[in-house]
Amino acid sequence: MPATLQEGVRRDVIKNLRGQVTEPEHRFFLALLMNVTTCKDLLTLVKQRFADTSPVETVLRWLEELAIQSEDGVSILDAYFPESVPITPDEQLSVLLATARFFMTGGKKMPALLRKIDRSYMPALILTFTRTSLSPLMHSAELANLQRAR
């Protein structure tokens, strides 16, 4: 039951975000986040619509365009950079994008930027994705790799 309630909240957040976003590509992305449950399916649909570019690069571009930098840090949609991770605000977006790339590409080796972060902070970064509208971007294999790396 808790998972069902969490999913309902996640979908409501995305519905509210769609009311604030006017760019057609971003609205398409939000619709995918709301309706697609796996990263593979999301990337397949992005590739079908934008065949001339890498779907991973397209999603990363959207994430960067949707990012907001404030004095409190960086957020992408409802995903806020964890306060517990000691990264300067100037580096937070790069870390979030590197994390998203790692999740989407199914990489076996953690990117250099993420290897510089103390492993004890990885659970906070994982939660940034798993408990937000960005959860469909995660391949379950990468989640398992990161959890093992702790």
Question: What would the keywords be for this entry?
Answer:
150 residues, mainly alpha, 8 helices, 3 strands, 63% helix
Strand order of the largest sheet: 1-2-3
Beta-strand portion reads 5-15%
Q: Helix- and strand-based class?
A: mainly alpha
Please trace the helix and strand order, writing H or E for each element: HHHHEEEHHHH
Sheet with the most strands? Answer: 3 strands, antiparallel
Mean of all residue-level pLDDT scores? 85
Q: How many H/I helical runs?
A: 8
Distance linking N and C termini: 28 Å
Oligomer: single chain
Anisotropy-based shape: globular
Low-confidence stretches: none
Kindly state the percentage of residues in helix.
55-70%
Please state the CA-atom Rg, rounded to the nearest Å: 15 Å
The counted number of beta strands is: 3
Description:
This protein is 63% helix and 7% strand. It has helices spanning 2-20, 24-35, 39-49, 55-66, 89-105, 112-115, 122-130, 140-149; strands at residues 67-70, 73-76, 79-80. A hairpin with a 2-residue loop joins strand 2 (73-76) and strand 3 (79-80). The chain has eight helices and three strands. With 150 residues, the chain is mostly helical.
Map the helices and strands.
Elements: H1 2-20, H2 24-35, H3 39-49, H4 55-66, E1 67-70, E2 73-76, E3 79-80, H5 89-105, H6 112-115, H7 122-130, H8 140-149
Antiparallel strand pairs: 1-2, 2-3
Helix pairs in contact: 1-2, 3-4, 4-5
